[in-house]
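Supplementary material to the annual report.
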Amino acid sequence: MVAFLLRRLSTALVTLVGICAATFVLIHAAPGDPVDIYVASLRSTSVSPEIARTVRRIHHLDRPLVIQFGYWLRDAVTLDFGDSILEPGSLRDRISRALPATVLLNSAALLLALLIAVPIGFLSAMRPRRFLDQSSRLIFFLLYSLPNFWVALILIRVFAVRLQILPLFGMTSDDFERFSTAGRVRDLALHMILPVVTLAYSQLALFARFARVSLLEETHKDYMQTARAKGLAERSVMIGHGVRNAAIPMISLLALTIPYVISGSVVIEKIFAWNGIGLLFIDAVLSRDYPIVMALAVVTAVATLTLSIVGDVLYAWADPRIRLGAGEVGI
Amino acid sequence: MLTMRQHWKRRLGVAALLLGASLACSPPEHRQAPPPPDAAQFDDRTPEDGGTVVLRLDTDIRSLNPVFINSVYEKEVASFLFDGLLELDQEGRVIPGIAKSWEISPDGKAYTFHLGTSTFSDGTAVKAADVIFTLNHILHDSPELSGAFEGMQTAGTRAIDDQTVQVAFDKARAGQLLAFGTAILPEHIYSKGDFAKDYAFAVTGNGPYRLLRRTAGKEVVLQRRGDYPGKKPHLEYVMFKVIGDASVAWDALRRGDIDEMELNSEQWTRAQADAGFQREIDLRRFYKLGYNFIPWNTRNPILADKRVRQALSMCLDRKSIIQHVYGGTARVITGPFTPDQWAYNPEVPPVEFNPAAAKQLLSDAGWRDTDRDGVLDQNKLPLEIRMLVPSGSRTSIEQAQIFQDSLKQIGVKLDLEQLDNATLIGRVTQGKFEATFLSWDLDLDPDLYALFHTDQIPPHGQNWVFYSNPEVDALLVQGREAMDQKQRTVIYQKLHQILAADQPYTWVLQESVKWASNKRLRNVKESRALGPFFWVPGPRDWWIPTPFRKRELSASR
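Predicted assembly:
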């Protein structure tokens, strides 16, 4: 187990550096230069070339790409991702403000989607092609096909404009600072309802279908037949044996889904003025603000790699037949 | 000074929200705002102090240090926090600000300002040394403002006494006075620590408001200064709400969460047809200084010939574009000035839509379809032009398609290439383009030196069309050096005429600003040149009658 972890960690580290290098090259190769964009956005007709040069020098933009990457890597190992080219203020502060906002929103949406979809998926598998199976399939796929920005605007119109029972946008009310703790939780929860619903509904189809297929695959396996032969009721065969085993592939699915929880949703964050990673990232890419793009790439890559390792470990823990690492084969 | 504003442009959206979000969270009996009396019928002759106005920002601000700000939103917020040495009135004329009077030396090189009784929000008086401190920082640190103080002499620029400042320049420049609208910073505070980083949101200004709080990505809240020595504004709080999405902002305006915003053509048309909307919201439309244009890269062998550029301009059906793309909310322009500027030459006619005459002109220039492929050619070179279109701009794409269609009919092939804004700017600033869609925001002074003088060809300046005409060069220099406005008018009207004939740009149209504000806001006026903000009194005269007030903000934090 320890050997496995060490090996996985070292591969992950190499992968991480690779991802960083690739992102670095790609974002620098994208046409358009942050200083040009900055200068073009200014109101002055005679922008001093001196100042543009200074900005380039501070951010090492006047050096060859390999050297720039070296500078970046040197700072990044100490978790110093530099300063934004366009904006004053610490980049680390901005990320540490945006990250919790995004994680909160997306994990709530993921949880909601799982709570609805997985039980329905399992129930559908127990009685395939019956009413629940067919109707949930129809509804989930219908939802899946709806564009989320459109649904967001419809929800806003109905709940925030017509009925005026939910806030229109933002993460908190104007007077948030003055609320009691309970008031704050309530306020935040109210603001989360519409974006969470918008983010969750399209994931229902995937999770429900996945849960259904996982359980169906177990249905005819020998151990299930054995259980039935022992005279167990179908219900306890399914729940006691089938569901437990069908949950294992769900772990992999989750490990692959969770990184999206961190990377955020640009469209939803923009519509609901939710100040998260998605908005930060898209603004940075569009203005070629290299340090922000790189910092977010690292955050997302680290999360993805970590979760894939955690996923493997959980997998082994949940299913003792799986042995990790070549050294342990056959034991 | 001019600004390149791409078509995806940040709108000068300005709006206001009040307890919108918090309404939803109050107990049900308070959910509805108290039924306001009919907004239009209330007596609005006597302004009352107090109340909160909520303005919209469609992107968050990055800094409130006047030396570093550049977006229109940052300027808008800063205009409440800082007074300039000089200010502008509704007509865009220079009026006293912190400086109660000023003199310009006969050679036009030295400016002397006499300061009035202005104070910073920490109670200290604005002194001549603060002006010098600020000007030095602008000159050395400000990418945006340093250009306006080009040629400022550090030696001749000094505080004569606490109330008197002298600023000296290498040479006289006609539009120089307008640069002194810049904010003044207190030296005793801003000289400590890191000027670039520490004062982005730690503001000590001399304007009528102080910064109460700013929450990144959410809001900026300002409170009226009780100790402001000038004429106090009426509104107690000014709140800026960040709302990126235009549809959400529209909903917020309808709900009364924000008090104003700029509308796009589509929203404008919808609002025009909605009587219920107009009962609560005032709609107004005005032209600011700025225009949309198609720059032609005159280094391109095809586009170097001005007859080709003229012919292309004749194929742009601007009336149809104004009608169909802008819903009639724009107007044709004839050259580099707008009808609201004194430099405008009313004699210059607009280029008429006339494909037949364009075809004749091209034929005179040697462009004929010799190989019968439907595209004109000359020496085996087809008349084919590649136009870059900002992919985020629906209006640019539609205009480009209308243009493409008209050109096709006379045998000119226009290829459209959609690019994201960053890439497009990169291509334009490096001269790697043939044509595109851009827009300028103009400064009050009509100096065009930076756009059309040969010296300003990249990488030195913003003459991105590589235009070079010795006669124009000479006029541009005379225009910025002549101190007499009558003389300058003659020069600029001449320039208007030459540039319109040469068509380094196809001057397309002037888009109007379509602005909506809640009727509870009283005494709202706009300036033709500047819009609702950036002039005095401007928003300082706005007020809200007590029955229309929503909940007061708390002054805590």
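Chain A touches chain B through 59 residues (CB under 8 Å).
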